Amino acid sequence: MTQQRGIGADGVHEVYAIKYATVNRARQSNFLDPVEGDPDAPMALDFFIWLVRGNGASLLVDTGFSRVSALARNRAFLQEPVQALLSLGVSADAISDVAITHLHYDHAGNVNQFPGATVWLQEREIAYATGKCMCDRKQSHFFALDDVSVVLKRIYDGEVRLIDGMHPFAPGIEFHRVGGHTDGLQIVRVRTARGWVVLASDAAHYYENLRRQNPFPAIFSKSDMMEGYARIRQLADGEDNIIPGHDPEVCVKFERLDLPGAHIYRIA
Predict the structure, then answer these.
(1) Is the confidence at residue 10, as pLDDT, over 70?
(2) Topology (CATH level 3) of domain 2-262
(3) pTM score, two decimals?
């Protein structure tokens, strides 16, 4: 079992947010319903992966995208995620497990760079990413076929663990399906020295999405999204322990590590 690999045997973990890319958008494009203030005001959307570590082992939450994908989608690329991990002294080979929150291009690229890791994914997510919803360009646009193909191959190779709903990964780490943004979106709950932290990924792109109950407009199920907001709050020890998937405010609220060339923030 995974917990035998040594992930946080004491159930308390360190968590880091690693920013690897960014893009500027109009404010209204980040919300489904009308916003307060100027809808055309610039509003940055940052891209993160997250590292959870304890007792000498590491769990990576999402794998980001590559410089090639950044060029294809016109994103400002800061650093390859694997290089950012090396700034923390963590090589790709040291990652024993990867939790993919969902299979969108910005969360599930680079999976092939972690060949020794077990990949953890909700069964409903792979069904969604390979099912009839992908006939709808408004939904398939957010996926990269090459990335999904890598995950499919790893399923056939026995390197992916497909889970359903809540899964206790290790002492102090839980995976929870909330859906909403995609059908199989999962969040990661982590026990830390500051209490339970929830890595919300795209269950809440921004703090403001959650605070105003005004979701990001890329939605598979709005009702699941709203239920997910309540679930996130239930699982976290306070709103300060909720970490949204794309909010530049994360880089203001949390300490940036003094690592040349890296944009890494200590969550707990």
Answers:
(1) no
(2) Metallo-beta-lactamase; Chain A (3.60.15)
(3) 0.95
